[in-house]
Amino acid sequence: MNAPTGNAAARLGAPLHSRRRPAWQRLDSGQLMLIAVAGLGVLGAVTQVAAVGLAQARVAVAFGVLIALGELFRMVMPGNREVAPVATAGAVGYALLVGVGPGGGGQVVGPLGVVPAEHSWLQVVAVTAAGMLVGSLPHVAVGRSPRLDATARRLITVGIVAVSFRPLVSLDLGWPVLLAAMGVVVVASCCADVVIAAMIRAEAVRARFGIALRDEIHAKAPLCAATSATAMLIAVATTFLGTAALLVFTAPILVTQFAFRRYAGIRATYLQTVRALSRVTEVGGYVETGHSRRVSRLAVAMGRELGMAEGPLLELEYAALMHDIGQLSLGDPIPGGATVLASPAEQRRIAELGAEVIRQTGVLDRVAHIVRLSSHPYRSAAPGDGSGVRPVPPPLASRIIKVANAYDDLVGDSADRDRGAAVLERLRLDSASEYDPTVVEALSRVVDRRPRY
Amino acid sequence: MRGLPLAAWAYVCGVVALATGLIVTSSYQGLDWHALVVLAVLFLICDSAPAQLNVERARVSMGFAASLASVVLLGPQGAALLGVVAVITGQRFFAPVKRLFNGAQFALSGYASGMVFVALGGAASGTGRHPHWVEHVIGPFLGALVTFVLVNLTLTAVILLLAKQAAPRELLRESGQLAVGCLGYGMFGLLIAGLWDRLGPFAAVLVLLPLFIARWAMEQTHAQQQAHQATLATLCQAVETKDYYTRGHSERVSRGSVMIAQEIGMRPDRVEAIRYAGMLHDVGKLGVPTKVLQKDGPLTEEEFAAIQLHPMRGLEIVREIGFLDEALAGIMHHHEKMNGRGYPMGLAGDEIPEFARVISVADAFDSMTSTRSYRPARSIEEAVAELRRGIGDHFDPVMVEAFLRALQREGWEPPRPPVLPDDDVVETTRQDHDDPSAPIRVAGDGVRS
Predict the structure, then answer these.
(1) B318 inside 8 A of chain A by CB
(2) Is residue A89 part of a domain?
(3) Which of A394, B143, B285, B297 is most buried, most CB within 10 Å of its CB?
C-alpha cells in the first residue's frame, strides 16, 4: 500500500513557479487569511480554556487522543487533497457531544438520563487544535512540512459545528430535536468544508470557482458523508455509553479510511506509471528529453484555463503524456523528434498508432480518442473537397494537445522568452485553420503567467 | 444441484430439518416483532448489496451486521427467525435447494450464537440503557460472534466438501479470508445493537453508511488496479512491438518470475512487485539503437556497451514509480551473474538482489523457449538442461530449483512462432542479449554475454 508522497502530490496542485520557495511564500492571500482566522480562533480558545480550566477533563483527553491519532494517519486524496477522516469525525463528534455517559455515583443526571456534557465551543476548538498539534509532530519530525491551509480548514469546519451546536446543548431540548439539529449541523459543516476547499483550490490552481466547487463536491462527498455519519455515531454512543464507546464506535470510519487510503494509493501509482512510461519515447530517442512531461503540464494548465473539470483534466493529462507513444511503432525516430515538423499524413499516422496502443488497454478508450484526434486540424477544409478531414472540430482536449505539442516542439527546453513569443505568433497565424484560436489564447495566458515552463 | 451425491442430499435435508424443527418448537413470547421486521429488512438490503469481498464460491455480506445485532437484541429464537430471511436473498443462489440450505444454516448459526451469548451472560446486561454496557457486553458478544462465524463456515464448508466442489486444502485457505471478513462485519452488529434503544433503525444507517462508502471505495480501488495493470501491460507491449520475435516476452517473464516467487514463499505484496518488475525488466532496451539490435554478426565494443546499458536505461524510466522500490533493483540487476561476470555492475552471489536473481532465470528460460530470427525455439527440456548448466555460474541454484518445481506443477506454454508479415521491411532482432546459450559476440575478443 502506498500513500502518495507529499512531494509528488504537491506537483499536482501547487502552481509550478513557486515550487522552490519557502513554505510561507507558497501560500496565497486566501490561504493566509484562512490560517490567520484559524490561528486567532485557537489563540482565543486556548486562552479561555487556560483561564477557566478544562471541563470534564477525562472526556476531553479521550477525544484529544482520538484526534491526535486521526491526524497522525491523515492522508492525501487524489488531486492533492489532504484529509484526516478519523480526526475530523472525532472532533465533530466532540462538538456534538450531549452527555458523557450514564450517571452513577452521585453525578448529576440531566433530563436525558445521562451526565450532561459541559464543555464550551472554545474548549472544542482548543482540544481539536491540541490534538492536531500532537498528531502533526511525528510528521514534522520525519521532515514532512505541515499543510497549514488544510489544517486550518479542518479546524474551522470543526469550529463551525461547535459554535452552532454547543449552545443548543444547554437548552434542554428533547432527544429527537437534538438529533435533527445534529444532522443539520453536520450537513452544514460538510458544505462549509467543501466551499472553503473550493475557494482555496480555485486560487491555488487558477480554476474557476464554480468548477472547483463541483470538483470538490465530487471528490469529497463520499468521504464527507462517512465522516459525518461516524461523527454522529460517536457523539450519540459516547453520550449514552460513556467514553468506552469511543473505542468501539470509531470502527466504521477506520474501515472507510483504510479503503480510501488504498484508493488514493492506487490512483497515485497509476499516474506515476503513465508518467514514467511516457518517457520511453525519450529514452528511445524519438522525442526530446522532457517533451511529454512539458506538454502534459502545459496542456493541463491550458485545460484549467479553459474551464475543464477534474475528470476530463486527468484524461487530458494521460493523453498528453502518451500522445507520442505511436512513434514507438516507427522504425526510426523522425528527425529531431518534433512531430510538428512531420508531414500531416505522418502526424496522423503516429496519432493513429498511438491511439491504437492506448485503446488496447481496454480502459482508456476516451484517452485513445483524444490522442487519435490530436493530429487533426481545428477547422477542416471545405467539406466535399475530398481531403477526408472531419467536418466537426476535434474535442477540446485534442485541440489543446495539438497546440501544446506544437509549442513545445518549437520552443523545446529553451528559456528564451523571445523565442516563446515568436512561436506563439506563429501559432496565432496558423490558428483558425490549424489551431483553435481560443486554445492558442489560453496558451498565451498560461505562458505569460509562468515565465519559465 | 442435480449432480449432488447422496451424502450431500442427506446432509442438506438434515440441516434443513434441524432448522425447521428448531424454529417450529421455539416459543416466541416477548419477542420484539417490530425490531425483527426492521432487522429483516436491513438484512435484505445489506445482503443484496454488491459484494466485493468475494471468494470463488462464497461471499461475505454485510448482512452479518444485521444478524449479529439480532443476536443481541432478539436472543436465540429471534436470531434464528432472522436467519430464515436468507431464503429470500442471495442473488447468486437461484436453485431452491441452495436457498433453503442457506436459510437453514443462517438460522442454525443465529440460534447457536444466541445461546452462547445468553450462556456467557450477555443477555443480563440488557441493551444500551445499562451503564457500562459496552464493558459488560463485549465479552459475551465476541463469544457469540465467533460461534456465529464458526457454525456458518463449517456448515457451508461441509456441503462444499460433500458436493465435491472444493478440496479441503483450498477450502481452509479461503475460509481464513472469509472468516476475517465475517468477523469484521459482525462486529458492527454490536454497534447497531448498542444504539438501537436510542436511535432505532437510524443506528443502522449511521453504522452502515460509512461501510457502504468504504465498499464503494474498495470497488473503485479494484477498478483502478485492473486499469493500472492493463495499462502497464499494454505499454510494455508497445515497447516490444518493434520486434516480432520478442512480443509477449515481458508478459511471460513476469509470469515466470511470479511462479518462482510463489514457490520460494515470497510475501504476497512482494510477489505483486515482482510481477511488475518482470513486466518492466526490458523497458530500457528501447534505449538501445535499433541498428545494434538488428546487426548481423559481431558487435563492436561500443555497440555491446549500448546493450549493457539497457538495465540502467530501464531504471531511469521506471525510477519514479513509487511502488516499485524493491523491483527497481531487480530491473537494474537482472543481467548480473552469480560469478560476477554480468552487467551492469558485475555483482556476484548474494550481492545480487533477490528480485534480480529471480527475473534472471525466468528471462533466460523464456528467451530460450522462444523462436528467434536466427534459430527456432528450443524445447522445454533443452532449456531446462541449459538452466541447470548455468547453476552456480550464472543462476542462483535456489531460484532454478524453485522454477523447475513450479514448471513441473504448472507447466509452461511457450510462445507460438511469430508469423512475420509478408514484406521486406519487417524488423527483427539479431542480437538476443537474454539467451545464455547463444552469447553475444563482440568483435576482437571472443564471446560475451
Answers:
(1) yes
(2) yes
(3) B285
Query: What percent of chain B has a predicted confidence (pLDDT) above 70?
Result: 85
Domain membership of residue A369 as a residue range: 278-449
CB pair distance less than 8 Å for A283 and B316: yes
Q: Which range (A208-217, B118-127, B367-376) has the least confidence?
A: B118-127
Of residues A429 and B178, more confidently modeled? A429
Q: Are A199 and A300 members of one domain?
A: no
Any chain A CB within 8 A of the CB of B300? no
Average pLDDT (B398-414) is: 89
* CB < 8 Å to B286, chain A: 280, 283-284, 328
| Fold for the domain defined by B6-221 | Arp2/3 complex 21 kDa subunit ARPC3 (1.10.1760)
The residue behind cell 473505542 is: A247
CB B406 within 8 A of CB B259: yes
The verdict on A95 and A17 lying in the same domain is: yes
Q: Cβ contacts of residue A231 below 8 Å, gap of 6+?
A: A88, A89, A90, A92, A93, A96, A186
B residues 83-142 closer than 8 Å to A (CB): 128-135, 138
Residue A270 in any domain: the answer is no
Q: Are A322 and A342 in contact (CB under 8 A)?
A: no
Alpha carbons B289 and B303: distance in angstroms, whole number: 9
Residues 6+ apart with CB under 8 A from A112: A98, A99, A175, A239
Cβ–Cβ of A266/B224 closer than 8 Å? yes
User: Looking at the structure, do residues A295 and A243 belong to the same domain, yes or no?
Assistant: no
Domain count, chain A: 2
Residues A252 and A286 placed together within one structural domain of the fold? no
Q: What is the residue whose three cell numbers read 518534433?
A: A338
Looking at residue A391, which CATH number applies to its domain? 1.10.3210.10
The predicted pLDDT at position B372 comes to 80
Task: Provide the pLDDT for residue B206.
Answer: 87
The x, y and z cell numbers of residue A350, run together, are: 503516429
Q: List the domain boundaries for chain B.
A: 6-221, 241-410
pLDDT averaged over every residue in chain A: 84
* B364/B89 Cα distance (integer angstroms): 52
Rounded to an integer, the average pLDDT of A124-151 is 91
Q: How high is the ipTM of this complex?
A: 0.81
Over residues A33-46, the mean pLDDT reads 91
Q: Do A316 and A355 share a domain, yes or no?
A: yes
Same domain for A319 and A253:
no
Name the residue among B357, B288, B298 with its Cα closest to residue B326.
Answer: B357
Using DSSP's 3-state secondary structure scheme, residue B391 falls into: strand
Is A204 part of any domain? yes
- For the record, the C-alpha cell of A380 comes out as 477542416
Domain boundary among A264, A286, A314: A264
* Residue that is last in its domain, among A264, A294, A329: A264
**Grid-cell match 545494434, residue found:** B292
* Cβ <8 Å between B191 and A230: no
Question: Which of A65-69, A161-165, B193-197, B243-247 has the weakest average pLDDT?
Answer: B243-247
Determine whether A252 is exposed, middle or buried from the number of CB atoms within 10 Å of its CB (0-12, 13-18, 19+).
buried
Domain B241-410 sits in CATH at 1.10.3210.10
For residue B313, the chain A residue with the least C-alpha distance is A283
A84 and A152: one domain?
yes
Q: If you write DSSP's letter for every residue of A330-388 in order, what string do you get?
A: SSSPPGGG-GGGS-HHHHHHHHHHHHHHHHTTSS-HHHHHHHHHTTS-SSPSSTTSSS-
- A274 touching B, CB under 8 A? yes
Confidence of residue A13 (pLDDT cuts 50, 70, 90): very low
Is residue A396 a part of any domain in this protein? yes
Asked if B131 lies within 8 A of A362 by C-beta distance, the reply is no
- Judge whether A241 is closer than 8 Å to chain B, CB to CB: yes
- Distance (Å, whole) CA A415 – CA A206: 23
Query: Do A208 and A309 lie in a common domain?
Result: no
The pTM assigned to this predicted structure is 0.81
